[in-house]
């Protein structure tokens, strides 16, 4: 809870801070990276260049202030959980919060100038620390559950035991622990962070990849789509590196599994809806069900550019044989010669996904994964069709959440 005096100051200054939020976070990053260039290796350079991370951080601090002052009633548990899981997968430590807070407060001061009286500065410092405490507590719990000390040492070495082409620009990496130790279990829907040292002394970058294989196996699998730069933008740093530089026998540094969204929630009917590379959590869910609950009713509704771009197609046919109650519904934007999915296995339509045609079993739990506009459309339709909001989980393959933050 904000103190009464700070609540009044935050309510009065929220509009001006909100209006300058992007400028403030822009200055915050510039200051912080000048003082601590080593942090450039921790933050995602692609997000910095496109401003996506700026928007996420600015939006979350300002929205949290709105929540504390009662202006914004968004459910905060999901948002804080999401950030904490992401932070834990990056090895963020409690000791880094004062540094971030100091630079954020200095950036507010720099952008808003004389408007930042000592009283205003103290009130926003309080907002920052209330949010920081929530996150630090959650992250401490996550580290404990994963058997980690919370000192940032989240990385362990994994050997690439195999690289499998899955579709145009998509490969899977099968990974085993270098030390021969046990393979940590995970819940379908969880992801690992992968840290790579880029060539030419360009430093380190970290990205998250959903585990696409079965939990409780003797290996992990991730499936990576190569991101090509379009309109003059550079190619994706890490996906390109993984595609071009990583081969069987190489070592990758991975975090333990994190992620608050289960792709197998509940024990009744399940609806998995994905687009493009967003299929990876659903693949883990289906592999898991095939091994543990083959009779569970499950629908996979998947949209892709065409059959050639659709990763794991052959695997889906095999899973269909193991999951008698699996219904596969596919949408391909374009036709290709290679589309030989047997009609007995999947119903295939041409064009964009038609949310109203997605089979919806009664009382289903839903998991969505794909681009934000895709998920927004599909979720909107599912809500209209009566699915309660708390039954719809979703994963975003980047920073941010759906517009209503739920
Ligand atoms: C929880 C989670 C799970 C995920 N699971 C998967 C998964 O299973 N499989 C998968 O393939 N991906 C997954 N992702 C996405 C993955 O983490 C990466 O974001 C993705 O591989 C792209 O990373 P990159 O380093 O290749 O691209 P980046 O270097 O991060 O670039 C991203 C985009 O920014 C653009 N960009 C970069 N610099 C600039 C610039 N200067 N100007 C303009 N544009 C620029 C690039 O062109 C590109 O389009 C997941 C993400 C999350 C958060
Ligand atoms: C109250 C304090 C903080 C807030 C509100 C905050 C907020 C956020 C948010 C909203 C995201 C994006 C999550 C997502 O949707 O994926 C994020 C990611 C991240 N945060 Fe924080 N954060 C805080 C503190 C810190 C600290 C102390 C560090 C350590 C230096 C840190 C480092 C990162 C990194 C490296 C990422 C991922 C960046 C990326 O992918 O570009 N954060 N944070």
Summarize the helices and strands and which ones pair or pack.
Layout: H1 4-19, H2 21-35, H3 45-50, H4 52-68, H5 76-90, H6 97-112, H7 118-145, E1 156-167, E2 170-177, E3 191-197, E4 204-210, E5 220-225, H8 237-245, E6 251-254, E7 270-275, H9 280-292, E8 298-304, H10 313-322, E9 326-332, E10 346-350, E11 365-369, H11 372-384, E12 392-395
Parallel strand pairs: 7-8, 7-11, 8-9, 9-10, 11-12
Antiparallel strand pairs: 1-2, 1-6, 2-5, 3-4, 3-6
Helix pairs in contact: 1-4, 1-7, 2-4, 2-6, 4-7, 5-7, 6-7
Protein name: nitric oxide dioxygenase
Keywords: Dioxygenase, Heme, Iron, Metal-binding, NAD, Oxidoreductase, Oxygen transport, Transport
Domain FAD-binding FR-type: 153-264
Task: Give keywords.
single chain, 406 residues, Rossmann fold, 3 domains, six-stranded antiparallel beta sheet, six-stranded parallel beta sheet, 11 helices, 12 strands, 39% helix, binds flavin-adenine dinucleotide, binds protoporphyrin IX containing FE
Proper CATH architecture of the largest domain? Orthogonal Bundle
Kindly report the CATH topology of the largest domain.
Globin-like
What is the H-and-E element order?
HHHHHHHEEEEEHEEHEHEEEHE
Strand order of the biggest β-sheet: 4-3-6-1-2-5
CATH superfamily of the largest domain: Globins
Q: Please give the domain count.
A: 3
Would you identify the regions where 5 or more consecutive residues have pLDDT less than 50? none
> How can the largest sheet be summarized?
6 strands, antiparallel
* Derived structural class: alpha/beta
Average pLDDT works out at 93
**DSSP strand (E) fraction?**
15-25%
What percentage of residues falls in helices of 4 or more residues?
25-40%
Shape: globular
Protein name: nitric oxide dioxygenase
Enzyme class: oxidoreductase
Catalytic activity: 2 nitric oxide + NADPH + 2 O2 = 2 nitrate + NADP(+) + H(+); 2 nitric oxide + NADH + 2 O2 = 2 nitrate + NAD(+) + H(+)
Organism: Micromonospora matsumotoense
């Amino acid at each position: 809870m904000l103190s009464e005096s700070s609540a009044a100051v935050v309510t009065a200054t929220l509009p001006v801070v909100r209006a300058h939020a992007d400028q403030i976070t822009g200055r915050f990053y510039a200051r912080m990276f000048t003082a601590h260039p080593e942090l450039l290796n921790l933050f995602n350079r692609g997000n910095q260049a496109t401003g996506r991370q700026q928007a996420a951080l600015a939006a979350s601090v300002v929205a949290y202030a709105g929540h504390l002052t009662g202006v914004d009633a968004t459910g905060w548990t999901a948002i804080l959980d999401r950030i904490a899981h992401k932070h834990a997968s990056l090895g963020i430590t409690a000791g880094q919060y004062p540094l971030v807070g100091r630079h954020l407060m200095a950036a507010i001061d720099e952008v808003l100038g004389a408007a930042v009286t000592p009283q205003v500065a103290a009130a926003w410092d309080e907002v920052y620390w209330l949010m920081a405490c929530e996150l630090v507590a959650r992250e401490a719990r996550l580290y404990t559950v994963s058997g980690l000390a919370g000192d940032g040492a989240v990385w362990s070495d994994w050997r690439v035991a195999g690289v499998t082409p899955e579709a145009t620009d998509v490969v899977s990496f099968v990974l085993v622990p270098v030390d021969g130790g046990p393979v940590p279990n995970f819940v379908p829907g969880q992801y690992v962070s992968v840290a790579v040292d880029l060539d030419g002394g360009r430093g380190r970058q970290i990205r998250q990849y959903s585990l696409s294989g079965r939990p409780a196996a003797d290996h992990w699998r991730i499936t990576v789509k190569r991101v090509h730069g379009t309109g003059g933008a550079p190619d994706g740093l890490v996906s390109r590196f993984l595609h071009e530089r990583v081969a069987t026998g190489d070592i990758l540094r991975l975090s333990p599994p994190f992620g608050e969204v289960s792709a197998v929630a509940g024990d009744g009917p399940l609806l998995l809806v994905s687009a493009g590379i967003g299929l990876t959590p659903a693949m883990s869910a289906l592999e898991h069900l095939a091994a543990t609950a083959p009779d569970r009713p499950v629908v996979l509704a998947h949209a892709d550019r065409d059959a050639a771009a659709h990763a794991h197609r052959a695997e889906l046919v095999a899973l269909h044989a193991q999951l008698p109650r699996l219904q596969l519904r596919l949408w391909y934007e374009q036709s290709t010669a290679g589309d030989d999915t047997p009609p007995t296995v999947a119903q295939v339509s041409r064009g964009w996904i038609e949310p109203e045609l997605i089979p919806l079993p009664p009382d289903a739990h839903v998991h969505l994964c794909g681009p934000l506009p895709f998920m927004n459309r599909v979720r909107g339709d599912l809500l209209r069709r009566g699915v309660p909001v708390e039954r719809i989980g979703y994963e975003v393959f980047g920073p941010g959440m759906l517009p209503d933050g739920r």
